[in-house]
Amino acid sequence: MKITLLDRILLLFTGLLAAWQVAVGIEGLTTVPMIAYTIAFGVLLVAGLLLIILGLDSLDSPIVVIVSTVIPLSLSLGLVWEHLASFRTGYLLFAILGFLAVVVTRAIPMKNKLPVLVLAVVHGIAGLTIFLLPIVFAITGQAKAGFALVGVGGALIGIGGLLLALLKVGKPILSRETIFRVLPGLLLLMTAAFVAGFRFG
3-state SS of 26-88? Predict the structure, then answer.
């Protein structure tokens, strides 16, 4: 599918927002959250630039599943480390082992449903963490109301991840063309929600 000028513009703004977050938006954080958020938004920046250069058809590459796992795992790790101190070590182990499990099940050809199951569990836990933690903290007054926007970004990344994952396993909700058409806008909205949530939360 040919990438349009509008797609390139949307992806460019996505990359610029991600770059701003890496350069400015994570100042004053402790080491682990800073590293986690830098990785997440750094991968998002690189992914946006690659999509501009290589086109949306590059999403068909098997490496996309592995790379796309880095973003939710890193973001959720940063959130847990910042806001749920008692779960830090356990979630760090989950993030490392979850990523390795995705890599192994994608690198080794398997005819069973294990790769899909591993991907669903890892993305599911990370996605729910990004979605629920900021919203719960905002509602309960443990964070500013604007922090809930990070949860909105989590919902959008979940939708995008679900659409791509189902497309990869041959059970898409929408057609390939429709998914590729909405993805650049979805990525921009998601990144804007994350940046705004971290800025005003």
Answer: CCCCCHHHHHHHHHHHHHHHHHHHHHHHHCHHHHHCCHHHHHHHHHHHHHHHHHHHHHCHHHH
Of 164, 151, 142, give the one whose Cα is nearest residue 198: 151
Pairwise CA distance, residues 199 & 196, whole Å: 5
Segment 46-105, tens digit of pLDDT: 988 888 988 888 877 777 778 888 999 999 999 999 999 999 999 999 999 999 999 998
Domain boundaries, the chain: 5-200
Indicate the pTM of the whole model: 0.90
Query: CA 53 → CA 4, 115, 149, 191, distances in Å?
Result: 12, 29, 30, 19
pLDDT digits (tens, 9 = 90+) for 174-189: 888 888 899 999 999 9
